[in-house]
Fold:
Amino acid sequence: AQTVTQSQPEMSVQEAETVTLSCTYDTSESDYYLFWYKQPPSRQMILVIRQEAYKQQNATENRFSVNFQKAAKSFSLKISDSQLGDAAMYFCAYRKGETSGSRLTFGEGTQLTVNP
Amino acid sequence: DSGVTQTPKHLITATGQRVTLRCSPRSGDLSVYWYQQSLDQGLQFLIHYYNGEERAKGNILERFSAQQFPDLHSELNLSSLELGDSALYFCASSASRGLRTEAFFGQGTRLTVV
Structure:
C-alpha cells in the first residue's frame, strides 16, 4: 500500500521569507502523481501544485515550487516570499495513475504559521 | 470556486439518526470521491465512484453507503450515527482522462452528531 509521510507537524516562517515543507512517500508504482493541497481555516481543500512522476522537471506555480526526488521518494514544497495568506495546513498527497481515476493518499499535514 | 458543490454545509443530528450528504461534481468529471476528516485524524478515503460504478472502497463503515447517479451526482448515506462520526466530509471529483488528473474538492459538509 502507498504511504505518505510528513514529518513536520508544525512549521513557522517570517513574512517574505522562504520555507520548505517535507514529504516522503512509498510506492511500487511507476505511474503516479504527487500533489500539495492547502487547507486554510475555512477548511476548504485547495490544490497548490501538482507533479507527474514521469516528468523530471520540478513543477512551479508562482511562489510555490517543488523539489521532486524520485529515487529518494521525496517531494518537498518550497514557498518563497511567504505571505500571511499562506498560513494554513498543508497536505502532501499521492495518487496512482489510472485512466478511471484513483484515490488520493494524504500525509498527516504540516501546520504552517506565517509571522508578520 | 472549485466547481464541486456539496450540500448541506452544516448538519447537526442526534445519535442513531440517518443523514444524506450530496455532491455535484465538476461538469464533465466522471470520478467522485468521498473523504472523511476527523479532528484527530487526517483525511481518510471512504469510497470512489466512476461513471456510476463503485471503483474502490477505503475505510468506510458498514453503516455508511454511497451511490453515484446517472447525472453523476453522488450521495453519501450515514446511518445509525455515533458521536465519533462527527467530522468534515469532503467530496472531490476529477477528470479521468488526459492531463488534468488532480482532484478538486467541494467545501465539505460539517457533520455534528450530538
User: Anything to note?
Assistant: Chain B touches chain A at residues 2, 30-31, 33, 35, 37, 42-43, 45, 48, 50-51, 55-56, 58, 88, 90, 92, 94, 96-97, 101-105, 107-108, 110 (CB under 8 Å).
